[in-house]
Amino acid sequence: xxxxxxxxxxxxxxxxxxxxxxxxxxxxxxxxxxxxxxxxxxxxxxxxxxxxxxxxxxxxxxxxxxxxxxxxxxxxxxxxxxxxxxxxxxxxxxxxxxxxxxxxxxxxxxxxxxxxxxxxxxxxxxxxxxxxxxxxxxxxxxxxxxxxxxxxxxxxxxxxxxxxxxxxxxxxxxxxxxxxxxxxxxxxxxxxxxxxxxxxxxxxxxxxxxxxxxxxxxxxxxxxxxxxxxxxxxxxxxxxxxxxxxxxxxxxxxxxxxxxxxxxxxxxxxxxxxxxxxxxxxxxxxxxxxxxxxxxxxxxxxxxxxxxxxxxxxxxxxxxxxxxxxxxxxxxxxxxxxxxxxxxxxxxxxxxxxxxxxxxxxxxxxxxxxxxxxxxxxxxxxxxxxxxxxxxxxxxxxxxxxxxxxxxxxxxxxxxxxxxxxxxxxxxxxxxxxxxxxxxxxxxxxxxxxxxxxxxxxxxxxxxxxxxxxxxxxxxxxxxxxxxxxxxxxxxxxxxxxxxxxxxxxxxxxxxxxxxxxxxxxxxxxxxxxxxxxxxxxxxxxxxxxxxxxxxxxxxxxxxxxxxxxxxxxxxxx
Length: 574
Known about the structure:
Layout: E1 8-14, H1 25-31, E2 49-54, H2 58-69, E3 73-80, E4 86-92, H3 93-99, E5 104-111, H4 126-132, E6 138-142, H5 146-154, H6 166-187, E7 194-200, H7 208-229, H8 239-243, E8 252-257, E9 259-261, H9 285-288, E10 291-296, H10 297-301, E11 310-312, H11 313-324, E12 334-341, H12 349-364, E13 370-375, H13 382-398, H14 401-404, E14 411-419, E15 422-431, E16 434-445, E17 449-455, H15 474-490, H16 565-569
Parallel strand pairs: 2-3, 2-6, 3-5, 6-7, 7-8, 8-12, 9-11
Antiparallel strand pairs: 1-4, 10-12, 13-17, 14-15, 15-16, 16-17
Helix pairs in contact: 2-11, 5-6, 13-15
């Protein structure tokens, strides 16, 4: 475990008239570490030019430092809070030492409001994005840190109290999010660049149909903007649309995360212990939850534990760097989610390759949208179990208040057997006074288990794709499927799986090694023999061989002589 010292390097830049700050000569001495190749770079190419666009701190800082430590030339464009005339970035001195001899780290940036100005405005910083990102082989974008940057700017000395107003904070958050989208769109205009978007886990409102409508809205806004507003900057509706606006989903990947925790190790505030040194120290979660798990976003969105997913900033930043630098075999348009788990061992390169290979196999086999899976010992009759699921279990669940109480939007309405070992539960919605199939859940039953995946709806009505968000009431059905598996074993429709026999660990006894060291005759001194001290039972005359002279009568009183008259006369009798 490595403790960071309190020493840190504070880099402060006063923004010029162009409202964008660039590295100076002093910063080049501190941050620019252009050196020879290093063995620590593993199998990565040292000629990688990586551009990172993000707010200060957070996942963006982790990715920038990690990529530089892996031997890449990193250009980090920092988008600060609006209405700022200067910006400061603090990096620990140990972080700079870890980068030295491996890679190169440069940074520039601009306030968020200057990126939303028209291009013909002299204060616009949008043109600096194209210059800064020229020659980039991969681009990473992160939105983590927007709220923290806004709150920190509002609490700065000399700022009026009105900046802490909730409505003002919400406005600043929106300006920063729009600035990130605009900057990413400008940086991703070059085709053939690998692009990685780091975003929160998918929300309930997102779906593929909505993304299609958003792209149409972007096209409409583009036309109206050119018609009325001249050169006004266009803000994409989503970060995905910003990164894929001028190209297809080729060379594009999305990395999502749950509830973030952890402080970047490059920050001077980073410490392995909560609250510093105490009598009973407690380690931070980023040091006890280093194990990772990668899952398709479709599968995670349907998991009933979606709200409980936690992700470490350190793991998310490293995963994004590995995805962008081409060390992992990824399909175009892949969308995955990272979950942190208990473990103190950092994943190595083989662990990362194994996790992403498992995800690729799931997506290629059609199990990317898998919602539930349970294992049986055997199923005597697949048709009988399928009939029970379609006619007994599913109707009872759909008649419950949780599902029957859905009054707006689509809901599950019917379950039927559509093939051998296959049951479909369909979702319907009323669109233009007609019933439309919007999605379905496919339950597959085999000889050894039961599983459920999410399926698409009516393609002719625009619902042919698999929804990337949970269907209404889907989490209830997934939760009840575990009860269905238990009931099936209780009713004799399936048997329990055989318990796994754990191999006994063979404890190897350490061999006793004896060494004989010959001693000189003159040095040999006989050791005194210690005689054991006798116990209480071994002491006494009998232990030494003594015997009684005569046997003593047992149970009789000794005869005592009665006093005589002469004795009484002498005065001894009383």
